[in-house]
Amino acid sequence: MADLPHLDEEALAELQDVMEDEFATLIRTYLNDSKERITSLKSAMKHRDADAFAKTAHSLKGSSINIGAPHLGELCRQIEKVGLEERLSDAPPLLSAIDAEFQQVTAALETLMAGSAE
C-alpha cells in the first residue's frame, strides 16, 4: 500500500480536461465533503455505530478514488471493512492514518490548484 501515491496525476489531469473551469469547484467540494465525512467517521466510531461508520467510509473511499487520491481510497477501503465487520475497536489507528493522508492530499491538491490558476 505504501507504493500508492497521494495523488494520481494522470487521473487528475483527465478530470481537469473534462471539468475545465469547474475543476477548482470540484476540488473544493471534495475537500469540504471529505472533512465532513472524516468528522462523521469519528462520530460514528465514538457512538459505536458500525453501520454508519461503514457507509461513511464507503462514500469517502469512492470520492477519494474518483478525485485521484488512491492511497486515501485504499485506507478508506480498509476502514470500511472494519465497519462492515463491526470491529470499531480496530478503527483508531486507521482513522489517524486517514487524517494524516487527507492532510497530504489537501496540501497536494491546493498546490495543484495554485499552479493551474497561473
Give helix and strand order, one letter per element, not per position: HHHHH
What helical percentage do the residues reach?
Answer: over 70%
Measured by DSSP, the beta-strand proportion falls in under 5%
Number of DSSP helical runs: 5
Q: What is the SS-derived class?
A: mainly alpha
| Shape type | elongated
Explain this structure.
With 118 residues, this protein is mostly helical. Helices cover 80% and strands 0% of the residues. Helix 2 runs antiparallel to helix 3, helix 2 packs antiparallel against helix 5 (91-116) and helix 3 (50-67) runs antiparallel to helix 4. The longest helix is centred in the C-terminal third of the chain and has 26 residues, at 91-116. The chain is elongated, with a radius of gyration of 14 Å. The model has no long low-confidence stretch (mean pLDDT 93).
Short structural description:
The chain has 118 residues and is mainly α. The protein has helices at 9-19, 23-46, 50-67, 70-84, 91-116.
Name the descriptors.
mainly alpha, elongated
Q: Topology, please?
A:
Blueprint: H1 9-19, H2 23-46, H3 50-67, H4 70-84, H5 91-116
